[in-house]
């Protein structure tokens, strides 16, 4: 007689086989999906065009290395291929933006990477939130006994809002402050002070070598943190105006110091600085240029004489530095001004070899808006204007000075622009060769107390025995920008 209790056994065996078959099926499907994703990934990396530049990082990406047997056997070639492959992932910026947005949703930040010039006034920790110290009361009176901007500027009709006396939402992220002011996010680089001794001594030496025949001016450009650091973060950044006044006290009597901090402070409610980029806006450069023109005693065209051009959707270097998605998702308007004055612009390489006559204000995409001024820092530039006053200006600058140049087209007959970091000729010989009457040093606070200032001494001594020739004067290129 059959035992009925044995009858369910075949069903259990059948269910077990079904589960194993189902599991095997899922495993097969998982493997196939994984293989498909791998094929898609490999195909993406192989067949999609490699990225050539990073708009976020403001740089050209690694190029494919040149092959030689020597580089191959030394391992240099294969290392270069690996670096190129890693650096030029297709749609690099899009993936980086996606990653930063995802991290931003979870409040995730990366390790501090930005460099603060000088020593921060207050030690800071990553992800620090609002702190309690009140804004420090800095002396806003210039100590320079020469033609400072504060002495030449009239009192503003309307008192500007002092952002330093107000607290703001935000925190210390990746080496800088990310704050919310007036409904918009702003990035601020911190300033840790510095002596500026090398800057002052180099200007004094240049002035000595020029023998008083050329007027020398010093006009450092403050960072946005000088005006927009909130009260609850006031101790995180030192006073740049005090630093500039200290430097001015070390300059020889024949050098005119133009401290524009008090000038810009009267316009803080206007868009004088970028929120997402470490540079100032053209409007800030305009007020600085006006202060210099007054100190130099030359005519200066009112901003109403310029054509204002707005570029929407700009996100600059501070997003690249911080990777903070709040800056990415709060783009700003980049504004520049086209001069109505007639002028012609000539370009040279850093050894002052003539390259050609092109526009002063270049066509660029939105992401590279600040490169509109002379295409950046790659060239030595000469601007010949319709002004007839016998004044020739040499501007020694970092990237901050680029935005000033259009505003000098109504003030000087000729303008020569050299970058303190890249110029390869002797600065003293150059000034004498072009017949300059005025020399303006204009660069950011970082440059004045940092390595860029150290290079001024090299400009004075390098290539001192060679003769400088302006090849453009032999060319017959006519026309105006």
Describe, in plain words, how this protein is organized in 3D:
The chain has 481 residues and is of the alpha/beta class. It contains 15 helices and 15 strands. The strands form 4 sheets. An 8-stranded mixed β-sheet has the order 7-6-15-13-14-12-10-11, sandwiched between helices. A hairpin with a 2-residue loop joins strand 4 and strand 5 (184-189). Residues 103-157 have low confidence and may be disordered.
Strand order of the largest sheet: 7-6-15-13-14-12-10-11
Give the overall shape.
globular
Taking pLDDT < 50 over at least 5 consecutive residues as the criterion, the unreliable ranges are 103-157
Q: What's the main sheet like? A: 8 strands, mixed
The helix content is: 25-40%
| Total DSSP E strands | 15
Q: Which structural category fits the helices and strands?
A: alpha/beta
| CA-based gyration radius | 29 Å
Present the secondary structure layout.
Layout: H1 9-47, E1 53-54, E2 59-60, H2 69-74, H3 76-87, H4 92-105, H5 149-152, E3 169-173, E4 176-181, E5 184-189, H6 197-209, E6 215-218, H7 225-228, H8 240-248, E7 255-257, H9 261-265, H10 282-296, E8 307-314, H11 317-322, H12 325-328, E9 332-338, E10 343-348, E11 354-357, E12 380-385, E13 392-397, E14 414-419, H13 427-433, E15 438-442, H14 445-449, H15 451-461
Parallel strand pairs: 6-7, 6-15, 13-14, 13-15
Antiparallel strand pairs: 1-2, 3-4, 4-5, 8-9, 10-11, 10-12, 12-14
Helix pairs in contact: 6-15
Question: Keywords, please?
Answer:
alpha/beta; 481 residues; 32% helix
Task: Summarize the structure in short.
The protein is α/β, with parallel strands linked by helices and 481 residues long.
């Amino acid at each position: 007689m059959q035992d009925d209790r044995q009858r369910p056994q075949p069903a259990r065996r059948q269910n077990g086989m079904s589960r194993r078959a189902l599991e095997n099926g899922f495993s097969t499907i998982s493997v196939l999906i994984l293989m498909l994703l791998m094929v898609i990934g490999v195909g993406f990396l192989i067949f999609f065009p490699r990225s050539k530049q990073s708009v976020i990082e403001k740089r050209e990406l690694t190029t494919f290395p040149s092959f030689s047997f020597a580089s191959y056997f030394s391992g240099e070639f294969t290392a270069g291929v690996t670096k190129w492959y890693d650096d030029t992932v297709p749609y690099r910026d899009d993936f980086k933006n996606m990653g930063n947005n995802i991290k931003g949703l979870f409040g995730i930040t990366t390790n501090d990477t930005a460099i603060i010039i000088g020593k921060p006034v207050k030690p800071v920790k990553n992800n620090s939130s609002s702190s309690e110290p009140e804004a420090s009361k800095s002396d806003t009176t210039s100590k320079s006994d020469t033609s400072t901007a504060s002495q030449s500027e009239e009192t503003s009709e309307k008192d500007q809002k002092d952002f330093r006396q107000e607290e703001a939402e935000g925190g210390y992220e990746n080496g800088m402050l990310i704050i919310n002011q007036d409904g918009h996010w702003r990035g601020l680089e911190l300033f840790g002070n510095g002596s500026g001794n090398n800057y002052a001594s180099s200007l004094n030496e240049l002035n000595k070598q020029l023998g008083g025949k050329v007027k020398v001016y010093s006009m450092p450009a403050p960072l946005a943190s000088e005006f927009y650091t909130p009260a609850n973060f006031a101790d995180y950044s030192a006073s740049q105006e005090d630093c500039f006044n200290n430097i001015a006290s070390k300059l020889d009597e024949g050098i005119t110091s133009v401290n524009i901090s008090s000038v810009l402070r009267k316009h803080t409610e206007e868009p004088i600085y970028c929120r997402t980029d470490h540079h100032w806006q053209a409007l800030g450069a305009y007020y600085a240029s006006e202060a210099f023109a007054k100190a130099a005693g030359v005519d200066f065209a009112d901003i109403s004489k310029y054509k204002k051009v707005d570029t929407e959707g700009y996100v600059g270097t501070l997003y690249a530095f911080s990777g903070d998605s709040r800056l990415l998702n709060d783009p700003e308007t980049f504004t520049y001004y086209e001069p109505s004055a007639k002028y012609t612009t000539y370009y040279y390489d850093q050894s002052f070899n003539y390259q050609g006559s092109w526009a002063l204000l270049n066509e660029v995409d939105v992401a590279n808006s600040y490169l509109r001024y002379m295409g950046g820092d790659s060239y030595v530039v000469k601007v010949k204007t319709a002004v007839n006053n016998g004044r020739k200006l040499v501007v020694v600058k970092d990237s901050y000075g680029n935005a000033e140049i259009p505003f000098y087209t109504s003030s000087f007959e000729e303008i020569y622009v050299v970058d303190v970091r890249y110029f390869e000729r002797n600065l003293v010989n150059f000034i004498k060769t072009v017949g300059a009457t005025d020399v303006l040093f204009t660069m950011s606070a970082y440059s004045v107390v940092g390595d860029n200032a150290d290079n001024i001494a090299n400009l004075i001594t390098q290539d001192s025995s060679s003769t400088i020739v302006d090849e453009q004067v032999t060319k017959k290129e006519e026309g105006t920008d």
